[in-house]
Each structure stands twice: as structure tokens, then as C-alpha cells.
Amino acid sequence: MWPSIIAKAKKGGIDVIQTNVFWNLHESQQGQWRVRFIREVQAHGLYVCLRIGPFIESEWTYGGFPFWLHDVPGIVFRSDNGPFKYYMQKWVTKVVNMMKSEKLYASQGGPIILSQIENEYQRIEGAFQEKGSRYVHWAAGLAVGLQTGVPWIMCSQQDAPDPVINTCNGFKCGVKFEGPNSPNKPSMWTENWTSFLQRYGQEVFMRSATDIAFQVALFIAKKGSYVNYYMYHGGTNFGRTAAAKIITSYYDQAPLDEYGLIRQPLWGHLKQLHAAISLCTNPLLSGAYETSSLGQLQDAFVFKRKSGECAAFLVNNDNSTNAGVHFQNISFQLPRMSISILPDCKNVAFSTAKVSTQYNTRSMTVRHKFDSIGRWEEYKEPIPTFSNVSLRAKKLLDQMSTTKDTSDYLWYTVSFQHDSDAQAELSVLSTAHVLHAFVNGAYTEHGSDKVQWSRFQGTHHRLTWYKTLFDAPAGNDPPALNLGSMGKGEVWVND
After folding, report:
1. Per-residue pLDDT tens for 322-344?
2. Which residues make Cβ contacts (< 8 Å) with residue 78, sequence separation at least 6?
3. With the C-alpha atoms ordered 184, 190, 194, 195, is the resulting torsion angle positive or negative?
4. CB-based burial label for 71 (10 Å; 0-12, 13-18, 19+)
5. Nearest 5°: phi and psi at 18?
6. Which pLDDT score is estimated for 408?
7. Could you tell me which residues come within 8 angstroms of residue 103 by beta carbon, excluding any fewer than 6 positions away?
8. Least confident of 144-158, 239-253, 333-347
9. Closest Cα partner for 25 from 259, 254, 241, 204?
């Protein structure tokens, strides 16, 4: 899967892959490490921005923190707190040393050109008062002290301590970003949101190809040096990896959709944008910079080298009307809310408002149907009783602290002798996703591979597991399972 997705990104004009390091995946059990992926990016001739975190957000469960941190005595996450800093330093140092040992930093000839420490911390920094500021400076010092030979960044952290680079996240960083907090730092956009996170029950947020292209071109026109699409490919949050209330499909509206398929016209329009910007490389890197007004809502951003080589970005900020302008004695028609890119200051190579890429639609072909009762088996999971379980408490236990994130289930039982003829009502206030209440039930616990399966009876009951066998479809197209008719539940494949 990854080679295909990385190849499509490269073909779309992407030259840096920005990726998070998920602490709770790579060290799900304390002291057991797993890190991979960077070599695949390098094999495609691309660079890497490694976002180590350790808090990564990303609508990921616990923001990437492993659950075992929860049980460290006295720990306070993301603060000037001794226990937290001990484990954070251990984690970040481990990741950096693993990258160094494989010679993956650019200073060693590898693909990693940037690393990120922390993530959008300024949004909550004030809640920690003076401990927040101390933590920011400590985290910056930790990162720089690891001597990777490449720059470190802090996104959405305007006061990032030198030499760590403060960067922008959002929809319109060409408009809202205050800029680098030091003249020695580049202007960088680490998250250009191509869509937005989606919670259960919410409508899909669609962002047009023209708007994304406009904002990228504007950021570059204002001397921006780096733009990352969040996401260029989002994928699927399998199992319980999504944060609370976040759907399993992540940024399906990105240039490469949930299945890694090209979404048009977004992918193609951005590819053309990247090609036009690439034609401006020399003036952008070493040209003198100047701006001029072309009208009430029109501006020119110009980069010009001493040799005369010149590139210009002509901006029309009027969102309702096209504009005719004169630039260097040449007339140009600028579509409403657009940026025209002139790699030679004379000819328009690309307009953000003119989409020439054909629209496409994602089609799905049914390869297998599971509509025959004879293909299914079922197992009805028994219901627990207090007398048959080993873990007991005479108080309400916290679900996560008790299960250590190994299960979504924790059963609570209460005894009540109803001596009246009046009707009794059970009322439960809970923020859980699902509640099953059983009265006078029975339970015995079994593993899923040890139970006795029976033929599917054609009726649905609570806590019933269903099993069927099928072969993976032929070919290289991404497969998907449509289980919408089965309601809310969990699915295991090849397990």
C-alpha cells in the first residue's frame, strides 16, 4: 500500500512526506519499540519531516500517548512535570537515536530534513501558567540538544524558543500567520487542512481545489518556504485508534482519498500548481522581493534576481469580480479570488481559479456478496453475573484504568430486590457510546477462537458475533467491506 501512495504523492509534485511518530503504536508496551516507514520514503527519492511529538493530536486516541503513561505516579502530561519529562525525554531520545543509527537524517545523507517537537501547545499553554512556559523551553532545549543536524519546528507556537522554528497550522496561513519570530527563521506552513476532521453525525466538510491552490500560492507569494497538506492522504483509523467521536474514515476528501485513490480535480490542480511554483525556483530562492498594488484589491508579489530572472504572483482578492490589471506594461485579466503565477514575469503559467483537470468519481464494484445465511456462523456471547467473575469492587471503577485500554467492555452490576407491584424503571446517566442492560443474566468468558460456533439463525441479538470466510479479491485495487446493515460493532479480518 505505502509504495503506491508515496509514488502517487511524488507524481503529484510532492517532495516531502510529513509523518507523525505514534508513541502508543511504537511503544504500546513500555520498553518494546517498533519504528519503520522512513526507508520507503527515501527509496522514492523524497524527503521527510518527522513529527516526533510526543503529543501528536491527529484525532488519534490519547493524542498518541501510550496508555501506560496514565499509571505513572504523579504524572502531569505536557507540563513542567518530572515524571512526564523523564518519559518524554526517553521516548524522543530513543526515536532520534534510532534515526541516527540508520543514518536517516539529512546531515548523515538521509531523507529527514526537519523534525517536530510538541504540537499546537500554545493553545493550552496558559492553563499550566508558568509551568507551561518552562515546559516549552525545556522541550526546545531537549530537541536541539539531541544534535540531529537538521532544524526543529514547533507548530502553532508563536514564541518557539530559538533556534526552533515556529510554524503555522490552518486553512489560511497566507493571511493569518504572523510570520517567523526571528529574521533567521523561514516561513513554514505545517498543516494546510485539505478538509477537516469529521465526528459521527456531522456533515462532510469539502474544500475546493481553487481555494486550497489560492492559499498555497498566497503563502509562497509572501515568502513562504514550506507547505504541507494535512492531509494529502488520511486513510482509515482501524480498531479503536480514532479519538473519541471521530469516524474511522480520516480526511477522505484529501488529494489521495481514504483508499489511496486519486481524487480529482484536487490532485491534478495541485500538481499543476506545484509545477508552476517549481518554474519559479531560482527567483524564489535568491531574488530580491518587492510588492506593489495593482488596484484596490489587487497586488503583485515579485521576486527578481540580479541577472534579470523574474517571477511574479498577481493576486486578485476580490471574491465577486474579475479584474483587469497592468503589470510591467502588460495587461492581465485576473479571475475573481485568484492568483496568477508568472515564472518569467510575462506569461501566466497557472491560475488558481482555472481548473483544467477533469472531475472523477470513485466507483465501487461488488466482488462478493455475503447475503446467504448458509455462509455465516454466529456465537452468542453469554452475559456476566457478579458471582462468576474474579475482579470485584464495591464501588464504580473507571473503565480505562481498569481495562488498561485492552477492551471496550467493563460490566457493572447492581442488586435490587423489587418487592412492590409497581413498575420499576432503570435510569442510567452515561457518556459511553453504547449501553447494554441485562437483568438476571448469566455469563462465561471465552476467547474468540475457542468458542463453539453455530449456524446463523437469521435473527439478530445483542452481543452476538458473526463469522464468514472469503478470499481477497484479485487485483491491486483497495478492497472494502460494507457492513452497514449490521449496525454498530467491531470487525476483525484474518484474526
Report:
1. 999 999 999 999 999 999 999 99
2. 55, 84, 118, 121, 124, 128, 135
3. negative
4. exposed
5. -100, 125
6. 72
7. 109, 110
8. 239-253
9. 241
Catalytic residue among 40, 120, 309, 381: 120
pLDDT > 70? residue 196? yes
For the cut 80, the answer to whether the pLDDT of residue 440 exceeds it is: no
Tell me the β-bridge partners of 272.
none
**120 is annotated as an active-site residue:** yes
Per the CB < 8 A criterion, the answer to whether 491 and 389 are in contact is no
Residue 137: pLDDT above 80?
A: yes
Give me the sheet containing 454-455, strands edge to edge: 454-455, 377-380, 464-467
pLDDT-derived band at 446, boundaries 50, 70, 90: very low
Instruction: Pull the grid cell for residue 80.
Output: 513542567
Verify whether residue 191 is a known catalytic residue: yes
Query: CA 447, 449, 453, 459 torsion: positive or negative?
Result: positive
Name the one residue in this structure whose C-alpha cell is 500554545.
Answer: 122
Closest CA to 409 of 381, 368, 387, 441: 381
Question: For residue 48, how far is the Cα from the chain centroid?
Answer: 15
Which grid cell is 119?
Answer: 504540537
Helices 266-278 and 209-221 pack at an angle, to 10 degrees, of: 20
pLDDT tens across 22-73, in order? 999 888 777 766 557 899 999 999 999 999 999 999 999 999 999 999 999 9
Distances, alpha carbon 67 to alpha carbons 16, 241, 243, 460, in Å: 31, 12, 13, 34
Which pairing describes strands 323-327 and 330-334: parallel, antiparallel, or unpaired? antiparallel
Strands 47-53 and 112-117: parallel
Find out whether 311 and 280 touch, Cβ atoms under 8 Å.
yes
Catalytic residue among 27, 57, 118, 191: 191
Cα separation of 179 and 158, whole Å? 8
Does the predicted TM-score (pTM) go above 0.85? yes
CA distances, 164 to each of 30, 130, 303, 380, 494 (Å): 29, 20, 27, 56, 45
- 317: cell is 482578492
Short-list 400, 397, 395, CA closest to 69: 400
